Amino acid sequence: MKEKNRIYLSPPHMSGKEGLKIEEAFKSNWIAPLGPLVNEFEQMVANYAGVKKGAALSSGTAAIHLALKLIGVQKGDVVFCSTLTFVASANPILYEQAVPVFIDSERETWNMCPLALEKAFVETKRLGKRPRAVIVVHLYGQSAKMDEIIALCEAYDVPIIEDAAESLGAMYKGRKSGSMGRFGVYSFNGNKIMTTSGGGMLVSDDEAAIERCHFLASQARERAMHYEHQEVGYNYRMSNLLAGVGIAQMDVLDERVQQKRRIFQRYHDALSDVEGIHFMPEYQETKSNRWLTTLTIDRDTQISPVEIIDLLEEEQIEARRVWKPLHRQPLFHDCPFYTAATGIPASELLFETGLCLPSGTSMTEAEQERVIDTLHGALHKKACTSIKAART
Ligand SMILES: *Cc1c(COP(=O)(O)O)cnc(C)c1O
């Protein structure tokens, strides 16, 4: 039998023009960090987001780290952060020896719950403290409830860092995801909707801050004829070669959003009437980039996300669970956590019941059918055995 080719969760998808841009960099010998392609890429992404400036960096994590530095977060400062996210959202808080405080999700967007955020603000104030920054994540391409979150952060006068690593190309009420906070963060890691193999960007309307970001990202070298340094710096800049890849990827970004949304739609059409399955909602007046198609499986359904992942794996199909909430990670075991839920926090329920399906834009329709058939098989097989079990 012919070996089935493996279907990955979200592999890189090149436009085909990346090579030309890399060649351009080679021909001009702009291989080293900095160079014309970096500037071009930064302006391209900033224009796309609808903000003034961008700083191309070595990763999204580096962008979050420098956003915290630019805001002035210091040792012992409190930083609020969405709990349902990848660890990279919060690791930079620890780099600065600041204190992460995690905020639960709500069910309509899976993102930061404004009620839990308000609770955290009130309680932190009662303790005589004020957070220095709020990191809001737009999970799997779905924007958080930014109107409510912005209103609260303005009332408490705390700047927002939007972790838009997964939501490049998504829209919130006519605005681009990542353009609404003081800083926006994008990632171009290999699994993201567009990639430079590895990389990230910090964007902002604050031109002086982005200029300082460039300074901090290149070892904080002062203007002088010799090497002069007054403060600690980082080697965080993106290379000119990779910026070339990014420019070519930007050409197909909107097409990728459309493809991701079509992939979601096909899963949705094929599976939405299966009992106990709920797809990640798309919140009113938002447009998700559907980076990953995600769904939940009710807890009283006969099959769990873990069992489904195993069954898909047998068919050479890669699926994953939803992120484990950071407040449940051993790394953050002593960090405060706020929820508005009276029972199980929303983020914990989403973790227990959530499933991410293969969503690569290079996946063919036939491959997606294979995923859907396997899922149907898994859900059906389980339903039959449970009927049998009920009869005997
Ligand atoms: C991928 C990701 C990051 C980190 O981006 P890197 O470029 O891999 O450092 C941060 N936050 C979230 C939510 C992510 O998914």
From TrEMBL:
Belongs to the DegT/DnrJ/EryC1 family. The active site is at K192. It comes from the Bacteria. SUPFAM superfamilies: PLP-dependent transferases. The lineage of its organism: Bacteria, Bacillati, Bacillota, Bacilli, Bacillales. One of its GO terms (molecular function) is pyridoxal phosphate binding. Its cofactor is pyridoxal 5'-phosphate. It holds the Pfam family DegT_DnrJ_EryC1. This is DegT/DnrJ/EryC1/StrS family aminotransferase. Transmembrane segments: none annotated. The modification N6-(pyridoxal phosphate)lysine is found at K192. The keyword Transferase applies. One of its GO terms (biological process) is polysaccharide biosynthetic process. Keywords: Aminotransferase, Pyridoxal phosphate, Transferase.
